[in-house]
Amino acid sequence: MLKINDIAPDFSLQDYQGKIHQLSDYQGKRFILYFYPKDNTAGCSAQACGYNAELESFKDLGVEIIGISKDSIASHEKFIMKYNLNFTILSDPELTAIKAYDVWHEKKLCGKEYMGVVRTTYLIDNGVIVYANDKVKAKEDARKMLELLK
Question: 99-133 pLDDT, tens per residue?
Fold first, then answer.
């Protein structure tokens, strides 16, 4: 995981409509960049829906929300449509941002080891990481970030 005061690594990733998003698009802005393991799983859906439900509160604070996973653009489109998500979700199948933000780690499930995305949330202000958390509780993430911002 990257640390507070680290310069946020650049990224260039597509949303489900094929639009390219880069770190420079958010220059001078505060935004939450959260990494999650997989579309349409219980935790990832709860996290996304939590951000979506509080979207106006984040906008009032001048904070944009961006989610990133390694899922395909087609998977993201289904995920967004299923939950009527109104914020940016980017596809990183080559793991470029996922690795740059140090969220690709060995994980264990039922005794089996594998590589995967560690659920991590960053708050970035003008290109600098001002908050970092890799112990994210999916259902509480949006509420916790709102409390932090207020």
Answer: 999 999 999 888 889 899 999 999 999 999 999 99
**Largest Cα–Cα distance of the chain, in whole Å?**
44
Rounded Cα distance, 7 and 59, in Å: 23
Cα-Cα-Cα-Cα dihedral sign, residues 21, 37, 133, 3? negative
Q: Among this protein's residues, is 49 annotated catalytic?
A: no
The catalytic residue among 44, 89, 132, 138 is 44
Measure the CA–CA gap between 65 and 87, rounded to whole angstroms.
Answer: 6
Q: Closest Cα partner for 75 from 14, 124, 121, 125?
A: 14
Q: What is the pTM of this model?
A: 0.95
Distance CA 68, CA 76 (A): 10
